[in-house]
């Protein structure tokens, strides 16, 4: 089971590390290994959220997600996106950005450093919206009930998450501008860029949310049609065209999942810039990590982990919220990547152990109920 699920990840790891040695020697090997671990730690929340969607898909589409989907994730988000960030922020062409990344790494590093405030504002706002929309939704299962219950009531206010996100962006930009002027105004001209990048992150989230909602509605429509076809087939005695209907529904779900997966890739890519500015090593390291995240997603689904440990999704979204805050803070202050990774791991581990305790309490309660029923039966029998 383990080898079947993680086999491709093991193979890609071996090839990626060998390629890293040939490209950058043992230093390259170390950087790729660190980036792989960084991507896995930062994107565990990605795997948990993805698993919630992927569990509705059959084995065939799970395999498509692991093959075709990973090409989109690795080459699109882990290779093209870092170059696009530099090209857009430096206002140069993508070809020139690639040339600088390969031939003039010092200048490329300076461009990345200059672009960091806008990168952090964009990614921070995007992830903050994911977190806010999660905690403002009224859910049947609550992890930190003392916090989530009142927040769910506040969530009934229309557009509250957007308003809060804009206030946070405004405070971040004003703080950035104030500190920049106090330190000589080196980055004072970047304040407007931070605001624009943050708004762009918010708009991107709203677009992604709109697309996700569209795909989800399409999926629900296809599932309803499939259910009606099954009922009609049962009444008429005809064979149910399940393959065609399931295929359509699974296709829309696959598109929906790709949109979600792409949105969660920002944190890993942005975090990787703190490790290296070499796009080859970055693509190798993040690509290996992306494979493990995808394999882990399938593993969580096949093991039924999300059903057994109900607070994992909560922990993953709290980790996203923490990462969003960290990114916004790094607009002005430097925070070590180890802290960024550990925060997510701690929150998810906490939610896991909370789930274990919940399961133990439920099992103990069921045991007491069973014992009480047995005693009642014995008493009535006597």
Description:
The protein contains 13 helices and no strands. It is mainly α and 382 residues long. The chain has one domain. The longest helix is centred in the middle third of the chain and has 46 residues. The protein starts with a helix and ends with a helix. 41% of the residues are buried.
Considering the chains and any ligands shown, give keywords for the structure.
382 residues, mainly alpha, 13 helices, 0% strand, globular
Sequence-ordered SSE layout with sheet pairings:
Blueprint: H1 2-42, H2 44-54, H3 59-90, H4 94-103, H5 105-135, H6 145-154, H7 160-182, H8 191-236, H9 242-272, H10 279-303, H11 305-308, H12 312-329, H13 337-381
Helix pairs in contact: 1-9, 1-10, 2-9, 2-10, 2-12, 3-4, 3-5, 3-9, 3-10, 4-5, 5-7, 5-8, 5-9, 5-12, 7-8, 8-9, 12-13
Protein name: DUF475 domain-containing protein
Organism: Streptomyces antimycoticus
Pfam family, one: DUF475
